Amino acid sequence: MKQINERGMTLISLVVTVIVITIVTFAVSTNLKNNTDLQKLVYLRSDIENLEGKIEEFFNEYGELPASIEYTDISDMNEILNSTELSSKFYVIDLQAMQGLSLHYGKDYEKIKKVDADRTTESVNQYKDVYIVNEITHNVFYVRGISLKESKQTIIYYTTRGEIKIPVE
Prior knowledge:
Blueprint: H1 11-62, E1 67-71, H2 83-86, E2 90-93, H3 109-118, E3 131-134, E4 140-142, E5 146-150, E6 153-159, E7 162-167
Antiparallel strand pairs: 1-2, 2-3, 3-4, 5-6, 6-7
């Protein structure tokens, strides 16, 4: 009868196991980050599509946009705006008028509404987690934008109609 020599794991098998676990962990964490980034983009698109539908309904019913507070700091988005939008005004969307709407972003609206109600001199443009609408095209934009990093560039989405690509330095 042969005797089986059981000494436990060798150093080589232990190192190989640690390397394999490290590779699997890296692959899983990278995949989760990509999924999280893509989920942010899905949320943005969903919010904008819902807002555009509600704005269209509101405009058809009342003949005006559900917005009255002007937002002027659109310089980050200039690259994706068409000529009509560049020469017209943008307004913060009145989310209170959008009944039955649940959004993932746009939480600064409550702060902006309070500033407007108090008539303080605090600038509305300091708030970035907000949705704005163009007075003419009725296109909706998310001021902060959603950034996704790809190999050698960062892509920023402000709307469903365009993106800005910035090279990574």
